[in-house]
Prior knowledge:
The protein is α/β, with parallel strands linked by helices. It has helices spanning about 15-30, 90-95, 100-105, 120-125, 140-145, 175-185, and strands at about 5-10, 15, 30-35, 45-50, 60-70, 85, 115, 135, 150, 160, 165-170. Helix content is about 25%, strand content about 25%. The protein has a six-stranded mixed sheet with strand order 3-1-6-7-11-10, with helices on both faces. Strands 2-4-5 form a three-stranded mixed sheet, with helices on one face. A two-stranded parallel ribbon has the order 8-9. The radius of gyration is 15 Å and the shape is globular. One of its GO terms (molecular function) is peptidase activity.
Amino acid sequence: MSAPRLLLLAGDYVEDYEVMVPYQALTMLGYRVDAVCPGRRKGEHVLTAIHDFEGAQTYSEKPGHRFALNATFDEISHGDYAGLVLPGGRAPEYLRLDARVIELVRAFADRPIAAICHAGQLLAAARIISGRKVSAYPACRPEVELADGIYADIALDAAITDGQLVTAPAWPAHPAWLAQFIAVLGAKVTL
Length: 191
């Protein structure tokens, strides 16, 4: 039996923790996570950015790592995947301008989606959050509301599930966000 497959959509300056941690954690749980980026092929990489909360009015940004892609965007078929992972950072800001990306996000509207931080921009652009409770980085609140989503103003380390959509404001929410996502996927972790 092959491992259930998840699709992770990344782009340059994706938030480092928000791409690395879910990729590693979901892989550790036995999922096959295919990481893709429009315009890039399997074996290429995207650059990441590290966002931190250091007491300023917004996050700070520092250079991150090179995150390797293990699948090619143009060769995937959304029907092959049980769910979609959308990390934040600056990548969603420009990925939402790609019609193929929006089409892909819409194709997952009735399946499990985990979106964190600025990935709320992709959900809003895809117009799949009307009437749904959605968390995102606070600066994305206007976009969530303009897409008729109900912005969930929750703690930075919290997550919220609305149907099969699991969202969180930023990487400090990884434990809650990933736990809720695997519950939506139907997985159970026991010790």
